[in-house]
Design brief:
heterodimer, A: mainly alpha, 2 domains, two-stranded antiparallel ribbon, 13 helices, flat, disordered C terminus, B: mainly alpha, 75% helix
């Protein structure tokens, strides 16, 4: 039996698209709709009963002390984004040099990424211990007199978590920037050299503009993950010492306190933030083709 | 003149190596410190000043961790989950993207838009409802429940579509003349041409699944099914302040990862290059 081309195509279209569409419907679209409904309701896990409560969950949320603490912390966490980006761009330029053995260095810098957030957070917790190696190191250099409570001090703990995020993100973005750098045709640099451009000029006039799409990608990825930070908080401080974040509260409300409705309301608030941030990133990097200042 | 140039080169090379080696220390020292701690005796762990090279070296914590704790089981679980996830992502994206890029049909752009849209929606807003869905599907505490909600990757479909679009029409036409049916055009012509992009996608999802923590923590109940990230966090809770055992389990967890990475690292770095070109 031979089908006509048109019919064959129809079979391919349906066979290739059906499963993905069903899965997206069940695990992306349905949760968005149902999640929005849950945020206006009380949900009973055992009976699957939904009781409409109007704005009660949101009102509760906006009167909840830790909502503001976690909101502020989540916004503070964004500070890590520019640091991570500039440092990893610098790293990428460094490991893009033609030095013998550079591939080994690239691999070693990537090790924190491949070992995973949980493992590195736990390793760092031991370093941050009050009697840990970091305090010992700083004290023996006479940089500090008293041991610092890296993870217990309310003014310090969040920054310690941010440092771990920074540290484990560097290798990840380094590789993406490196790939971006290597995709820039070398003829451009040669032509610029002929025109007498120095390396600083080459960097600002060729590297930066051509790296812009990569930068956009990396800024979006890292600001999204900064706003959703969870593992570092859970494993370093368990949300104590004023380090709770929106994501941590969301988890805590839903899966420890079984307050699905309240957690769903928080999820809506967090989602709005994430969507705004993505638009902001697009605006800053101007994919519409505006020139940078 | 020539020798001064050489001297300059040597000096700049030396400076670069010093910076690179300092950075290696910066990136590896938590692991080295964990290694050192794991080899200490119970009394030496809190010794002040701390020592880098323990004396005497003790393998007690390793003996304990290896005999009592299922770290290799966690590793295998991670492998199963990651391979399942990568397979789903790559296969479904490679297939779904093809008609969206190469075949004409009604509503194509609308379907593409609807597939891409979830990229903008953060995973948090779906967490709770997906958990409820998994419970209702009776998939709670199964490997498949860990990968199912992310089996279709919007990003993956987007990436693959970009790559399919760049295939010249002529190749398709000549395949038709050679008697290929529509399925064969995909399997023999189109898919082989986008394999590098599929490889890049595989790397992206590998890292994502290997590192995933929150979702497996929610949908797996039996500690024997925990992937390594969840398992280590669980042990960390169990040991409370026993850093010697925690560090030994960290080191045991890291070793297979490093061995695996050592053999596959080429693909990681090239994968990103392929993805950005697309």
């Amino acid at each position: 039996m031979k089908l006509t081309r048109k019919k064959q195509q129809l079979v391919v279209i349906i066979a290739f698209l059906l499963v993905p569409i069903i899965l997206l419907g069940v695990f992306s679209y349905y949760p968005i709709i149902k999640g929005t409904i849950l945020s206006f309701a009380d949900y009973n896990m055992l009976t699957s009963e939904i009781n409409w409560v109007g704005l009660k969950n949101y009102r509760w949320l906006f009167n909840y002390k830790y909502f503001y603490v976690s909101l502020l912390n989540t916004l503070k966490y964004l500070i890590v984004v520019p640091f991570i980006q500039f440092a990893s761009m610098g790293l990428a330029v460094l490991v893009n040099q033609q030095v013998p053995g550079i591939k080994i260095f690239r691999t070693l810098f990537y090790v924190p990424v491949i070992t995973g957030s949980v493992i590195v957070s736990i390793a760092w917790r031991w370093i941050f211990d009050v009697d840990g190696i970091l305090n010992y190191f700083l004290m023996s250099l006479h940089l500090i007199k008293e041991p610092i409570m890296w993870l217990l001090d309310k003014n310090m703990a969040l920054f310690s978590c941010m440092f771990v995020t920074f540290w484990r993100g560097l290798g990840y973005y380094m590789i993406i920037y490196l790939a971006g750098l290597q995709n820039i045709p070398s003829e451009l640099y040669e032509a610029a050299s002929l025109d007498g451009a120095n390396s600083f000029k080459k960097f600002t006039k060729i590297t930066v503009p051509l790296l812009k799409p990569t930068m956009l990608l990396c800024f979006i990825l890292s600001s999204m993950s900064a706003l959703q930070v969870f593992e570092e908080i859970l494993l370093l401080t368990e949300g104590k010492s004023q380090t709770t974040t929106l994501m941590f509260e969301l988890y805590d409300l839903a899966f420890n306190k079984l307050e699905f409705g309240k957690s769903a309301a928080l999820a809506i608030v967090l989602s709005i933030f994430l969507i705004c941030l993505t638009f902001l990133n697009f605006k800053i990097f101007g994919l519409g083709g505006e020139k940078e200042k | 003149m020539k020798s001064s140039l050489r001297k300059k080169r040597i000096i700049s090379l030396t400076i670069k190596y010093i910076i690179l080696i300092l950075l290696v220390f910066f990136f590896l020292f938590p692991f080295l410190w964990a290694l050192s701690t794991s080899l200490k005796t119970a009394t030496d762990v809190f010794k002040w000043p701390p020592e880098w090279i323990p004396k005497p070296i003790s393998f007690e914590s390793y003996k304990y961790v290896l005999s009592e704790l299922p770290i290799f089981k966690y590793f295998i679980n991670s492998m199963i989950i990651t391979i399942l996830g990568v397979l789903f992502n790559v296969v479904l994206s490679s297939m779904a993207a093809y008609p969206l890029a190469r075949l004409e049909f009604k509503g194509r752009n609308l379907i593409f838009f609807l597939i891409i849209l979830p990229m903008m929606v953060p995973m948090q807003s779906t967490l709770i409802v997906n958990f409820i869905t998994i419970l209702h599907l009776n998939l709670f505490n199964s490997y498949i429940s860990v990968v199912l909600p992310t089996a279709v990757s919007s990003f993956g479909i987007f990436l693959m579509r970009q790559n399919y679009l760049s295939i010249p029409r002529e190749l398709e036409d000549s395949a038709k003349i050679d008697g290929c049916n529509e399925f064969q055009i995909w399997s023999k012509i189109a898919f082989p041409l986008v394999k590098p992009a599929a490889g890049a996608l595989a790397i992206f999802s590998f890292v994502a699944y290997w590192n995933s923590f929150l979702w497996p923590l929610i949908v797996l109940k039996d500690p024997n099914k925990y992937p390594i990230q969840v398992g280590i966090a669980y042990l960390n809770n169990m040991f409370a302040q026993n850093y010697r055992h925690i560090c030994a389990s960290l080191i045991i967890a890291v070793i297979p990862i490093l061995i695996f990475f050592f053999f596959t690292q080429r693909y990681f770095i090239e994968g990103y290059q392929g993805a950005l070109k697309g």
